[in-house]
Write a structure and sequence with these properties.
Blueprint: H1 14-39, H2 60-66, H3 75-86, H4 106-112, H5 127-144, H6 152-162, H7 164-170, H8 177-193, H9 204-215, H10 237-246, H11 256-259, E1 276-280, E2 289-297, E3 300-303, E4 312-315, E5 321-325
Antiparallel strand pairs: 1-2, 1-5, 2-3, 3-4
Length: 339
């Protein structure tokens, strides 16, 4: 949501936007396909690294280091686990007595907790111990189920959720809805924590989302607005982006900092129309994101800026620009285009 969104100088005046907005956006929508042709030769491949700001700065070096502990995991996968388990909250405590950023239950911690920072103790509440312990436990589980058919990482994740015995018994991810969902969520979220390794094609859905947002130009901002009739069809920033992508069959989370984790993160030079663009006062922490818009090309986005303003075009190249996310049909992943 973006009530705290700081007003930025507009290079496109309101009168010009009203007069030219329709034609400008229609050109951008068509441009999605033209840009797609130019991007088709982009480079692909490469290993996974953490995307900038996808993990809180205090934990990023630990996740990057320990995420390479064994072949079954990588830094982005480890980050996705921590996000799913606790939202990177080192004080998290569940009803099932799971504790800390990695949500260890006491019995598992007693067996698998390690002194990750070498300070002489094993503290489940200290991320410097809990994050390495999570990586170490993942690798232990992977070794337990290494002879089970199927994807080693999915089998490891299933073991984390249901226990290695269940994975061995069923010779793969067991038929438990909770476990199957856990594996799906983590492997999907993994892509949103990984730095992009290549260019991704735009889609017809991106053009449709832009077209939806374009029709809302001039609509007054409403904090908490999701465009309902009771709200007069008004939106806040993340309400607009969510509704725009819902109109083309893509479900996004409700708030801006969760929407950041809905797909891979293209660099500024890789932006395509339809990408979500994010802004924050803390450029090291994705959880501090406070504003989102839909990139339309040419350095501009359509956004719902703040109370007292209307949905409009705004430039994205400002000091508080955080990064971008590309969403696809499942709202969470996109594959790089290979040469």
């Amino acid at each position: 949501m973006g009530d705290g969104w700081t007003m930025r100088k507009m290079w496109v005046g309101a009168g010009v936007a009203v007069a030219l907005g329709m034609g400008f956006v229609m050109l951008l929508v068509v441009g999605v396909y033209l840009v797609g042709g130019n991007m088709a030769g982009g480079a692909g491949g490469g290993g996974k690294r953490l995307a900038k700001g996808s993990v809180p700065a205090a934990y990023q070096p630990i996740v990057q280091k320990w995420g390479n502990l064994c072949p079954a995991i990588n830094p982005a996968l480890l980050a996705a686990q921590l996000y799913q388990e606790s939202g990177f909250n080192p004080k998290a405590r569940s009803a099932a007595a799971a504790q800390g950023i990695a949500q260890f239950i006491p019995g598992t911690w007693a067996t698998h907790g390690i002194d990750g920072d070498g300070d002489g103790d094993r503290d489940v509440w200290d991320p410097a111990d809990a994050i390495p312990s999570a990586a170490s436990y993942d690798c232990s589980l992977a070794s337990y189920v290494k002879d089970v058919p199927g994807d080693p990482t999915e089998n490891m994740l299933a073991s984390y959720n249901a226990g290695a015995y269940a994975v061995i018994k069923y010779q793969g991810v067991p038929p438990y809805k909770e476990t199957q969902n856990y594996v799906r969520v983590i492997t999907t979220l993994e892509k949103s924590f990984a730095a992009p390794t290549g260019r991704v094609d735009p889609s017809e859905q991106a053009a449709g989302a832009i077209a939806y947002a374009q029709k809302k130009l001039g609509t007054p901002y409403l904090w908490g607005g999701t465009g309902t009739a009771e709200q007069g069809g008004r939106f806040d920033c993340s309400g607009l982006t969510k509704a725009a992508y819902e109109s083309v069959g893509i479900e996004l989370p409700r708030v801006a900092n969760d929407q950041y984790n809905a797909g891979p993160h293209p660099g500024r030079e890789e932006l395509l129309p339809g990408d979500l663009v994010f802004f924050s006062d803390d450029l090291t922490n994705s959880r501090a994101i406070r504003h989102v818009g839909i990139y339309v090309g040419g350095g501009y986005m359509i956004d719902a800026p703040r109370t007292g303003a209307v949905i409009r075009f705004d430039p994205i190249d400002t000091p508080d620009y955080f990064g971008a996310t590309r969403v696809t049909e499942d709202g969470a992943k996109a594959l790089p285009t290979t040469v």
